[in-house]
Structure formats: structure tokens, C-alpha cells
Specification:
Blueprint lengths: L10 E5 L20 E2 L2 E2 H11 L4 E6 L4 H6 L4 H10 L2 H9 L5 E6 L6 H6 L2 H4 L4 E4 L3 E3 L5 H12 L2 E7 L9 E7 L12 E9 L10 E9 L2 H8 L10 H9 L9 E5 L4 E3 L3 H14 L4 H13 L5 H10 L1
Parallel strand pairs: 1-4, 1-6, 4-5, 8-12
Antiparallel strand pairs: 2-3, 6-11, 7-13, 8-11, 9-10, 10-12
Helix pairs in contact: 3-4, 8-9, 10-11
């Protein structure tokens, strides 16, 4: 097949206007994106992922009470000077790390009209070039470079690309789900089985009505035609403008008109920080794998479990079944 060569992708959009109500009261005065995962805020992992994939221009879609996000990715001169005086080069490097990742830009969403509306807010900055969208609740392990693969697929096939995971059918109603078919893929990244053509998308389908068990997660590489479609997209599930609904329209289009839409099936390490339980599990997993923290933390964790400190779990299970 003829390869659909597209322009180089350099821009990433990170929607970060959510209120984080699942983490109240911690998020009453602190943006959920700034909650620490071990010793870095969750949002820094996302920006690091974008930078590692070559996206040097990052636009963050924010809202009220999100100023700490801007401060985190800005220089902290007083703190840096103090660390310089102390000769603490290690901490100085870590403080400067976030401000050196990418060129950061910010725009406020204003009315919380959904993910589709948040992406639409990026149009003046993005313009007429393909771009990536990364949601902050999904942390992708850097050892499994999903975004780089998606960018390569978009470069080869054009249109838009979404990340998919296979979920239990009983959980499909929590996601946007895709109807898929095999795709012609001859790129250097991945295999044919990992790349699929999306023929339909449904946001949070009713139980039993999902088109497949393949669910969309928070990584997208989008053709700029999505802006035109979003402008015409009416509120959907939850009364919000859904990005899934716009992608459904693009999936029916031909190359050159914003289509098609492909999916990359992801089977790597993913940490969900949007749920309290998964957030805690993400911290434990990442701490265990750290070279500086892992050995001591794993030893303590084994001792903690070995001493029967988790015996109360049995009572919790009985309560859940009551």
C-alpha cells in the first residue's frame, strides 16, 4: 500500500482541568495532577513521556486552581540558589529537571465541557498539524514506549491513532470501546497483530453492548481534522463533548479528509492514577522498581506481609461480600 507520509509531530496536548473529586479532600487545594507518585508529581511522568517521544512543545489545558502546575514546570530560582549554596548538586539537578523537559504553554478550558472540548481549546496553538494528546491518569512505563510507536504508525498511515488495551467485557462500560479489523502495516515498529484499523467507537457502552473488549486509554495521536469535527460534535455521554464521538466520525473518513483511525494494542506496563486503589498500587510498584529505593522498600514490604500485618484483609473481604 502507499504510505501516507505526514509532517513531523512536535506538539503534545495534556488536558489537566479536572477537579479530581475522587481524591477529595487531598485535591481541595492541590491539583490532582500534582499528587506525588513516589517523589514526583503524576503530571511530570506524563511530560517526561512526551519529551522522550520527541515532543518538545507541550500545551497544558488547565482550569481554576491549577497554578501549581505552571509553577512546577517553571524555574524556582530561590530554591536553586539555596541548593547551590549548600553544594547539593543532586537535588539541584532534580529541581531543574522538570523545567528543562519541554517548552511549556498553558490555556484555560473555562467551562468543563468534556475531553473533546478540552482538545478543541488547543486548536489555536496546534494549528493544522498532527499532534498528540496524553491524559494524566494513565502513566505508561518508559520501558514500554507506546507513544513513540503511535507516532510512527501515524507517520506511516496518516489519520489518527489511539491506544487500546484488552479489558474484561464486564469492565467495557467504563471506557470508550472500539470495533476493529486487521490493518495493513509494514512499518519498522511493532507487528501486524499490534496495529488494527478502527471501524467504530462507542463511549461507555451499555453493559453487553460494547463492540469489542478493546478499550481506548489516554494516548492519542490526532489529525488536525479532529478540530473541525469537534466543532460540530454535540454533547454525548454525561452531557459532555466526547473525543470518542469525534474519532468515530474520522474512522469513517478516507485519507486526506482526516481518516482513517488506527489503534495500537498495548500490552505493556501501565499505571492508573485516576483511582485511589490503583494510585496506591502504582506507587508501590514504581517504588519497588527504583534502584535507590527498591531494595530497602522490597525488603520492608516482604517483612510487612510476612508478619501477617495484612490479616485485616480477610475482614475487608467479608465486609465487601455483606
Amino acid at each position: 500500500m502507499t504510505k501516507a507520509r505526514t509532517r513531523q509531530i512536535t506538539k503534545a496536548v495534556i488536558p489537566a482541568a479536572g477537579l479530581g473529586t475522587r481524591f477529595l479532600p487531598a485535591t481541595k487545594a492541590t491539583p490532582k495532577e500534582m499528587l506525588p507518585v513516589v517523589d514526583k508529581p503524576a503530571i511530570q511522568y506524563v511530560v517526561e513521556e512526551a519529551a522522550a517521544a520527541g515532543l518538545t512543545d507541550v500545551l497544558m489545558i488547565t482550569g481554576r486552581n491549577k497554578r501549581p502546575l505552571e509553577d512546577h514546570f517553571d524555574r524556582a530560582y530561590e530554591l536553586e540558589e539555596q541548593l547551590i549554596r549548600k553544594g547539593d548538586q543532586t537535588r539541584l539537578d532534580r529541581v531543574r529537571e522538570s523545567s528543562d523537559l519541554a517548552t511549556m504553554h498553558y490555556v484555560r478550558q473555562g467551562d468543563p465541557k468534556g475531553l473533546g472540548h478540552a482538545v478543541l481549546c488547543a486548536e489555536p496553538h496546534v494549528g493544522d498539524q498532527p499532534f498528540a494528546v496524553l491524559l494524566g491518569d494513565d502513566l505508561i512505563d518508559p520501558r514500554d514506549p507506546l507513544l513513540a510507536k503511535m507516532i510512527e504508525v501515524q507517520r506511516e498511515l496518516g489519520g489518527s491513532v489511539v491506544a487500546l488495551i484488552e479489558v474484561d467485557p464486564s469492565q467495557a462500560h467504563l471506557y470508550g470501546c472500539a470495533a476493529i479489523k486487521p490493518a495493513e502495516w509494514h512499518g519498522s515498529v511493532g507487528s501486524d497483530g499490534e496495529i488494527v484499523r478502527i471501524t467504530d467507537l462507542v463511549e461507555k457502552p451499555a453493559p453487553g453492548d460494547a463492540p469489542s473488549s478493546y478499550a481506548v486509554i489516554g494516548r492519542y495521536v490526532l489529525d488536525p481534522a479532529v478540530f473541525e469535527v469537534l466543532q460540530a460534535t454535540k454533547p454525548g455521554v454525561g452531557g459532555e463533548i466526547q473525543l470518542t464521538d469525534a474519532l468515530r466520525v474520522l474512522a469513517q473518513r478516507t485519507p486526506g479528509r482526516g481518516g482513517p483511525v488506527h489503534g495500537v494494542i498495548f500490552t505493556g506496563r501501565r499505571y492508573d492514577t485516576g483511582d485511589r486503589g490503583d494510585y496506591l498500587r502504582a506507587i508501590v510498584r514504581l517504588a519497588c522498581e527504583r534502584e535507590d529505593l527498591g531494595p530497602e522498600f522490597r525488603s520492608w514490604l516482604k517483612e510487612f506481609v510476612g508478619k501477617g500485618e495484612l490479616d485485616l484483609l480477610g475482614n475487608d473481604e467479608e465486609s465487601d461480600q455483606a
